[in-house]
Every structure is written in structure tokens, then in C-alpha cells.
Amino acid sequence: MSEHRDDAQTTGTARPPRPGATRTALAALSGLIAGFCALAVAELAAALVRPEAGPVTAVGGAVIDGTPPAVRDFAVRNFGTADKLALRLGILVLLALFAMAIGVLALRHRRLGSAAVLVFGLVGAVAAAGRPEGVPADALPSVVGAAVAVAVLYLLVGRLAPAPGPGPAPATATAPAPAPAPADGDFDRRGFVVAATATAAVSAGAGLLGRRLASSVQAGASASRHDLVLPAPRSAAPAVPAGADLRIRGLTPFITPDKDFYRVDTALVVPRVDAGAWRLRIHGRGVTRPATVGLHDLLRREVVERDITLACVSNEVGGPLVGNARWLGVRLADLLREVGVRPPSEGGPADQIVARSVDGMTIGTPVETVMDGRDAMLAFGMNGEPLPFEHGFPVRMVVPGLYGYVSACKWIEDIELTTFAAYDAYWVRRGWAQQAPVKTESRIDTPRPSASPKAGVVPVAGVAWAQHRGISRVEVRVDGGKWHTARLAAAGTRDTWRQWVWEWPAASGRHTLEVRATDGTGATQTGIRTGTVPDGATGWHSVVVDVS
Question: In sequence order, what are the beta bridge partners of 375?
Fold first, then answer.
């Protein structure tokens, strides 16, 4: 007879059963409920601290900060302005999967599962407090949420423990110990259902309360925007010239409605700033009279109105991240001169304006460009209304001729005069160029790619832009043939895009249409294709159509 016997035969006890499918599934559900509780309580706490301190927002912000330019461009290209929604959903899905895994872990090792929850809470706390605009109190929502999750997980997994029984009869030399109890044997099913239902209900209530509190905090900002009366401009924008909008089906309108204006930023939660409480600080090198101004200080200044086209550096050739609006605000150069700033060409010591947003974004703009006579402004109106929150209410920067990442600071609260050698702004630290004038670009809006127009005269139309240089000519060619000059719409200003149309005598078959533009200096758009990094894409936009 072998001298080696099973431990159960030696000791007379059965090994603890491995969790079965039912208990494992309920443990995963327990982790999911605990995660839901954590997020709900954390959002409630964030409503009392500030909405941006919520763990999903904080972690999402950290992900955006660490995203390489190529990945960011991929997200913008594939999700457009819904990139933030996609990121939030992705974070929630990952959190749900991790929560279920932690629940299963806690079924066998409750302390280890609790430790895993605390690690996630620590990640959220560090992400929140470590944001550029973060403060130590921002860690509180994640810490509170993690503590609640530990308690809930401990409670629910405890209900899944097998109910104590009379215990097996001891083994004898002739009678082996009975088989272990089934892995999904008796446990406190009723207690688990009651506890799970109660915690889920309380969490839902906490989440709703958090949203209500956040809404009440934001109500003041909404009211301040609703009550803001924009002043009449002393220097009004000229009327849009007759013929500036060709009104061709499928062609982008000359003025982009607010709801259609592109939005690219890093804010997972759109800042809602109370106009009455808003302040802008101006300081730094060459500022002899530092100043802090409020919105009503700006409203009392000379107000100007201008049509200006803005473009995002992440816009690929032919992309939609460009728009034209009528902006209302004050000249930034006038304000800078009043506080003592001189451009480098006049001996000023600063060559960079670093604009800071309430969400911690920093944008670096050349002082010389802002003060060279162009209509760089601090804008508070857009298309006849106060700025939408999504576009920077109460005040944002607008500088014609520069890509947005080096000029268009939304929700601005600080202007510091410094040098490019001394400071790299947010996007520069992530591989983008310090300075980025808008490149001459053109786009075919109609016909759309893969369209099937009828043979005959087909209007090929679109827009072209080269802010602060203007557009002097647009040309179209078919299948790599000779270039044909398009008819230009009436020009707005050199800071706006320009519509164009070419009447194409289309023959049946598959054809490739290409477009190029020439700016006001006589420089023609290059056909060499490059990506958006580091200072904007180049190349001719093309579409392929099947003429029937």
C-alpha cells in the first residue's frame, strides 16, 4: 500500500470547494455593483468639489494628456467631435470589466479584492489632483468612491459565502471522508439579492443627486449667459457681400451656424463659467502695469465685430474641422498696449503670449502676430449671440491666420507674456510646432465621394481658405488632366474662406476630381501630401465619382 495519501484522508476534512459558475457570476455582478456605487458616490462628491474632479473625467483627461499626436489624430479623424464621448464610453467599459474581475478575485480573497479597489481609487485621485488645474481637494471624490466600493464589495461577496453546515463526518481507515459540498451550494441568496438591490438603488439615488447638485451649480453660469446683453459694435463687420454665398446644394454656407461649428479641445466636461465671476489676469515679461479685468470691463471698451474663419491643425486634407463665424469682442492688441506690452519689433522682451484656460489648457501665440494690426480679439459673441459654452463662454481668443492650437484659447482666464525659449505650451510639449500659420487649403464639398451624378453639366463646388492672405484663384482638374479655373464667389475679407464653383461637362464613367487654391500672395497650394503633425496637413483634396 502506498504511504502517500490524500490530505483529506489524512485529516478527515474536505478541501474548500472552488466557486462554481453561479457564485462566480454573482461575484462579477458584485464587482460591477461596487464599481457603479463608486462612480455614483464619486460624482456626488465631485458636484460638491467641482465637476472636473470626477474620476472618469480626471482619468480621461490624463489619457488625453498622454495620447501621442498620431493617436489623437486617429480619434479626431474617426470620431470627429464625438471623440470625447467615445473616450468616456471606452473608460466606462474598461472599468466595468475590471470591476467584474475584482469581484471574482474578492470571492476567494476578499482582502486582495479590496486592495485592488483601493488601487483604482488611488489612480483616480492622482489623476484628478495631478491635472494642470488640479488642487488637492480634487482627489476627494475618487477616495470617497473607492472607500464606498470596498464596503459594498465586502458586503456583497460576504453574502456569497457558503452557509455553515453540520460538517462532514471524520474519515476512518476504512471509510474515506465524504465528497466536498457542491461549489454552488447553499449561500445567503435572499441576503445577496436584498443587499445588491439596496446598494444599486442607493447608488442610483446618489448619482441622480450628484447630477442635480452639479446642475444647480451650473445654473448660475447658464443664467449669466442668458442675461448677457451684447453691446452694439463701434466697428461693425461689413455686410456679407452679395454673391459670397453661392447657395449650391451640398456647398457649405458662408457663415457656419453655431451648432455646426467644429469643436476640438481636451475638455471632457465643458467648463461652465459664471460671467459675473470671470476674471482675466494679464502679467509677465514687458507688462509694466499688470491688470485683472472682468467681462463688464471688456464690454465697456471699444467693441469690434469681424467675420473670421478658424481652422484646426488636426484637419486632414478635405476635412471638416474649419468654420467661419461672425465674432464680437475687443482688440487684444489694444489691451496689451495699455498694460505696457511692446512687440519684439519695437524692442519688447516677450515674443510669446501664453493663454491659460480654466481647464488648465495652455496655448502659445506669437506677440508679433497679435500686434501686427490684424483683428486678433478677445471674443464674447458669436453669430449675434453670447459665445456658446462649448465654444468658450464667457471669453475666448480669436486670431485670424493661425491654427487654433496656437491661438484660439477657449474659457481663457490668464495671459502671461514670456518667450518661446522659456516655455512650451501644451501641444508643443506633445510634438506640435511652436508656431503654425494656417496653410492655403481647398476642399470639394460637392459632389461627394462615390456620388453618381448624371452625365452633363455637374457643378463642382467647395471652399478655399488662407486666412490673412485671402484666396485669389481656385482650379479643378479631372483624372490628372489640365487645370480649369473655377468661378470664385464674392470675397468676404482676407480672413474668411471663399466659395468657388466649376461647371464640369461630365462624361460617363469613373472620374477623379482634384482641387487646388492660390492665395493672395500668389503662392499656390502644394500637391505634396503630408500629415497633420507638426504644423498642418498639405496636399490636394480629391474625390472619386461615378458618372452615369
Answer: none
- Omega before residue 447 within 30° of 0, cis: yes
CA distances to 3, 27, 91, 342 from 31, rounded to whole Å, are 45, 6, 16, 60
Q: Reply yes or no on whether the pLDDT at 310 is more than 60.
A: yes
Q: How far apart are CA 271 and CA 389, in angstroms?
A: 7
Residue 465 neighbours by CB under 8 Å, 6+ apart: 309, 311, 322, 438, 440, 441, 442, 471, 496, 497, 498, 517
Q: Are strands 385-386 and 498-506 parallel, antiparallel or unpaired?
A: unpaired
State the virtual CA torsion across 211, 213, 215, 219 in degrees, nearest 10.
180
Cβ-in-10-Å burial (0-12, 13-18, 19+) of 439 comes to buried
Alpha-carbon distances of 113 from 161, 187, 188, 203, 286, rounded to whole Å: 15, 20, 20, 20, 57
Q: Are 341 and 369 in contact (CB under 8 A)?
A: no
The pLDDT score that the predictor gives to residue 163 is 65
The torsion of the CA quartet 187, 189, 191, 197, rounded to 10 degrees, works out to 140
**124-174 pLDDT tens trace:** 999 999 887 788 999 999 999 999 999 999 999 999 987 665 555 555 555
Please, where are the H alpha helices in 174-249? 189-227
CB burial of 319-339 (b: ≥16 within 10 Å; e: otherwise) equals bebbbbbbbbbbbbbebbeeb
Q: Provide the mean pLDDT of the chain.
A: 91
Residue 456: strand pairing partners? 506
Site of grid cell 481668443: 397
DSSP 158-183: HHTSBPP-S-PPPP-SSSPPPPPPPT
Q: Which tens digits make up the pLDDT trace of 348-381? A: 999 999 999 999 999 999 999 999 999 999 999 9
Give residue 12's pLDDT. Answer: 44
At 539 the three-state DSSP class reads coil
Cis peptide before 136 (omega within 30 of 0): no
Q: Per-residue confidence at 272, pLDDT binned at 50, 70, 90?
A: very high
Q: Is the pLDDT of residue 5 over 60?
A: no
The structure's pTM equals 0.84
Nearest by Cα to 153 from 186, 189, 115, 119: 115
Kindly report, residue by residue over 337-346, the tens digit of the pLDDT.
999 999 999 9
291-294/304-311 β-pairing? unpaired
Separation in Å, CA 531 to CA 187, 374, 506, 517: 60, 28, 31, 19
Which distant-in-sequence residues (6+ apart) come within 8 Å of 527 by Cβ?
Answer: 516, 539, 540
Query: The C-alpha cell of 392 is what?
Result: 468658450
Name the phi and psi angles at 72, rounded to 5: -60, -45
